[in-house]
Specification:
24% of the residues are buried. α2 (34-57) runs antiparallel to α4 (73-86), α4 (73-86) runs antiparallel to α7 and α7 packs antiparallel against α8. By secondary structure, this protein is mainly α. It is elongated, with a radius of gyration of 21 Å. It has helices spanning 9-31, 34-57, 62-67, 73-86, 88-96, 99-104, 108-142, 152-178.
């Protein structure tokens, strides 16, 4: 540190830059997890099968059944995503024996916990958005040109927003309970 900084702002900015690197590490751990992508892929695969049968058997209700994605398959998929993938980092420290080392560092546990909460919330948000886009894309591809009801987009966006908030809340609740 070559500068004289009586205000401490440069030191604060350096600390924030280091925190950003730690945040990237946590996000990378989530997105590199093959289980993250497996859970999302499984949820969308189930949706594809259900959408195909909805189109074949109940085409008159296809779009309303598509909008109900979050009522069944989507919610179960996000539940598995949170409980199987995102919470895993919180228990990994105890499983690997790194917990005493982390606890012995000054502010290490607090910073790590905060970074994992933020990164996990971001990963939950990305998962929710990917499932929403996947559901919409599958519905459009499988619908065979069935007309989409006028109010469908509004209902879909509203329910997706509610699910997004609920998923982040579920993740935060599970993280506080598991840590």
């Amino acid at each position: 540190r070559d500068w004289d900084d009586p205000s401490g702002i440069f030191h604060l900015l350096e600390d924030l830059a280091e925190e950003g690197d730690d945040m990237k590490t946590e996000l990378t751990r989530y997105f590199r997890s093959s289980l993250y992508w497996l859970v999302l892929g499984a949820g969308l695969s189930v949706r594809a099968v259900l959408a195909y049968f909805d189109f074949q058997i109940r085409s008159d209700a296809f779009w309303s059944l598509s909008a109900e994605f979050w009522n069944k398959t989507g919610s179960v998929t996000l539940g598995f995503l949170v409980l199987l993938v995102l919470i895993r980092l919180f228990s990994a420290d105890r499983e690997t024996g790194a917990f005493p080392v982390i606890n012995s560092t000054a502010y290490g546990r607090i910073a790590l916990f905060r970074n994992r909460l933020i990164a996990g919330s971001a990963a939950a948000s990305v998962g929710t958005i990917l499932l929403a886009i996947g559901n919409y894309a599958l519905s459009v591809l499988i619908s065979g040109g069935l007309p989409q009801p006028d109010d469908w987009s509004y209902a879909w966006l509203r329910s997706t927003g509610i699910v997004l908030i609920g998923t982040i809340g579920f993740f935060l609740f599970a993280a506080f309970v598991c840590d």
